[in-house]
Design brief:
single chain; alpha+beta; five-stranded antiparallel beta sheet; 6 helices; 5 strands; 13% strand
Length: 239
């Protein structure tokens, strides 16, 4: 489909375009397949993914941009000389490579790596987290809590005296309390990844209905658009 870029926010790496049929769409900078940054008024072509979001964008009739144009006004604005060197194709390509290197590395993560990442960002309530990061860390906390319960059960059977087990019980209690912050943080980032505020976690205090809603949110796939919390935590296609 063909259209025209109407706006682009470099900070959020997202913008809007108007299709030839008059419909307006929001696009992510990760869908942009050209080296130059998108610029309003540029004529583009784009395709849709199976989810209905814009999958790929590129210049309309892009072959003419490889020709020498005698009329400067006919050159797309994003291909005209920029005074800011940071928008040069080389810098942009470098930025793209740096952004996607993280995604390529995370695609090879296992259970331990995701748990360690969540612990590393134990107090980060601002970013975004994909489903694997949240659910692997949640599973790790459940395993740790169950181990704690087994230890307490053994103590209650009087195989170990309470006095001698008191330091161990105190340590278990401290560990469980310490896990509260990172599980809230990774839950907040998981909600950010679908475009929702971390305050939705308060639904945990509403039995049944609240639990169903929050579980639905936490299980949703990554939103492909940039939002105020940053770029998507996961991409399905690399530029």
């Amino acid at each position: 489909m063909q259209g025209r870029i109407t706006s682009y926010d470099r900070k959020n790496n997202s913008g809007c375009l108007e299709a030839s049929n008059g419909e307006k769409y929001i696009f992510s900078g990760y869908s942009w397949s050209e080296q130059n940054l998108p610029v309003p008024k540029d004529e583009v072509e784009f395709t849709f993914s199976r989810t209905g979001s814009i999958d790929e964008m590129f210049y309309r009739n892009k072959t003419i941009y490889n020709q020498e144009l005698t009329n400067p006004a006919a050159t797309p604005e994003s291909l005209r000389p920029h005074t800011n060197n940071s928008t040069s194709p080389i810098d942009i390509e470098h930025l793209k490579s740096a952004e996607y290197e993280k995604y390529q590395v995370e695609n090879k993560y296992g259970f331990i790596s995701w748990v360690l990442k969540a612990l590393k960002n134990f107090a980060d309530f601002r970013g975004r987290a994909r489903r694997k990061e949240y659910w692997y860390f949640y599973l790790a906390t459940i395993i740790l809590i169950q181990i704690s319960r087994i230890i307490i059960y053994i103590i209650n059977l009087e195989y170990i005296s309470y006095e001698s087990a008191l330091p161990l019980l105190s340590f278990i209690a401290i560990i469980n309390l310490m896990l509260l912050i990172p599980i809230c943080a990774v839950g907040t980032r998981r909600l950010h990844d679908i475009g929702r505020s971390g305050w939705w976690q308060l639904l945990w205090f509403i039995p049944v209905i609240g639990w169903i809603v929050i579980l639905f949110f936490l299980c949703k796939n990554t939103s492909p658009q940039n939002n105020k919390w940053g770029p998507p935590a996961k991409v399905t296609r690399l530029l």
